[in-house]
Predict the structure.
Amino acid sequence: MIPGSVSTYPLSAVAHQPELLLALSLLAVAPSVGGLLIRGDRGAAKSTAARGLAALLPQSGDPQSGGHPAPFVNLPLGATEDRVVGTLDLDAALRGEARLKSGLMAQAHGGLLYIDEVNLLPDHLVDVLLDAAALGVVRVERDGLSASGRADFALVGSMNPEEGGLRPQFLDRFGLCVDVQAPTGAQQRAEIVRRRMRFEADPQGFAEQWQAGELRLCERLQAARLLFPSVDLPDALLSHIAALSAAAQVRSLRADLVMHRAARAFAALEGRSEVSGADIERVAPLVLLHRRDPRLPPPPQQTTLPPDSAPPQESPSPLEQEPDQPAPPDSNPQAEEIFAPTANAAPLPVLVGKGVASSGSSQGDQPGRVIRSVPISPQSNAPLHLPDTLKAALGRTLGGEFQLTAGDLRSAVHEPVGGRRVLFVVDASGSMGVAGRMGALKGALLGVLSDKARRDRAALIVFRGTGATLALPWTTDAAEAEAVIAAVPTGGRTPLAHALQLAAEIVHANSNGAQSNAELVIFSDGRANVPLTAGRDAWTDALQAAQALRGIPALVVDTETGRIKLGRAAQLAEMLGARYSVLETV
């Protein structure tokens, strides 16, 4: 019998994602690692792999239950707290009974709870989910009613970093993290499409084709789950775990605990009852990836495959490297320098964007979670909050005949919703090192960030040399932003068009055709000298790239100095329809 359903894509058939398969296997063996965060591009098999793992988990988390599929619960992005945690059973309330209805977490007991775009989920829901995943228990308290139940599930969250990040305190609470992306080799991509088309044409036949691989993986996971409690990690290796965490400048001890469990799970997958130093080295990248100090250089990539991660058949061809486009030559290379932020910059006019929400207006966004309810009269136009209305009536008539009166009517008060996204686009070319402008720019940038509301998100694009990079994905953490900004190097040419092109991709990401709620703050002297393609005019390319951003609220901060000024930053602001300011130094 093939594990899972024929409508589920087999996990063993997921190609070219060895790190993802390893991380999922570790989570299946030891859900106590605390969940898995998958970051990466759209269409990189994140949800397909998670659903495939659920088909291999034993029902109710019992290793002895064999091939019965465990529940797979997909948490919708717009789910309310009541639906996730649980709420009052309205049918029972109408009969005068105080009873609680289980939520999605209880439904996922013994299986897998999957959250797509977890970075867009409200913070309080992320907190509740991580608590339940760590404790294996869900607790519900509603106006004097209290209940708890088992919620032992494997938690998998996925996200596209371009659409915003998670706060560091939430990142740390995900035990493992893996970055995935769709392969770039033509033969690899063709193999993935070939397998998917075969699955869609004949799910039953495709499942039978991969039956041996699925059974082998299922048996391996089952054996590892049984072995895991008895796997020993020698005390001498604890210092090795601590050294790896310290080298990544991780302050939280949760990393050390997770690495301990993950190394034991890896040894169990290998069929060994004692952990070796190599086991710790193998799982360390999955534990430290999302916790390491962002100012450190990225760790070397793992090249070894996880246990049983290779497909049983139709092995993929070797990675076909696509030739890179030749970079425009840098006729005036300059050494990199890092300037500390200075406090001598004049304050910048902070944008008042359309994305800012106040307690009196949600600016078209969905209202926040219900934080309380207030009595209303029958003549009120306020929307009725049915759960609290029934609770009021139930509390008044508990033990007697249920009766709803005008005095029981309640309306919800929602938490104010923030939603502004501020994208900073910073020129870090060699000219920014003149007269201390980069230090003043960093000081001004940090000053603007410090004025942002806590719920607003900021991101940072840095452009220099021959291209632009997203140095800081969307985040609400000021400390993380400060660390990244302070470490930005200066040197090289000015690829302004590349930066504007990347900014357009980021602000329009996930907008689904709707108006973006992002704002731009661009620091540049406008002296573009790197075209998008060889032979074109760099300034013309920059103006054309700016057209894709027209209509986005923007502020252009002119960093140009010297006696002879081209005034291109002002022209850029005009093309964008943006406000214009000058970076002043004292």
About this structure: The chain has a mean pLDDT of 76. The first helix runs from residue 18 to 29. The CA atoms of residues 6 and 204 lie 5 Å apart.
